[in-house]
Amino acid sequence: MNREDRLEAVTEGHDAARQRRIESARRALAASGAKECADCGELIPEARRKAAPFARRCAACQSEREREFYCR
């Protein structure tokens, strides 16, 4: 196995490990999904949780956060 082959094998191994970590994180987010908004503490509507299982804020708080970030 030459240097390029070894480098390619290592790179593929790193890529596969990274992909496994990403998938694990996605499964954890989907399984745990926040039910309460991280900002206001109100319940996040089920429709929003289904549409965006990764959401940590209700739509109103997320919109406010984005408005503050993008409209500086």
UniProtKB/TrEMBL annotation:
GO biological process: positive regulation of secondary metabolite biosynthetic process
Keyword Metal-binding among record annotations: yes
Keyword tags: Metal-binding, Zinc, Zinc-finger
Positions annotated as zinc finger (dksA C4-type): 37-61
GO molecular function, one term: zinc ion binding
Listed Pfam families: zf-dskA_traR
Residues covered by the Zinc finger DksA/TraR C4-type domain: 37-67
Zinc-finger listed as a keyword: yes
Entries under InterPro entries matching the protein: Znf_DskA_TraR
PANTHER family linked: DNAK SUPPRESSOR PROTEIN, FELS-2 PROPHAGE PROTEIN
Protein name: DksA-like zinc finger domain containing protein
Source species: Martelella mediterranea DSM 17316
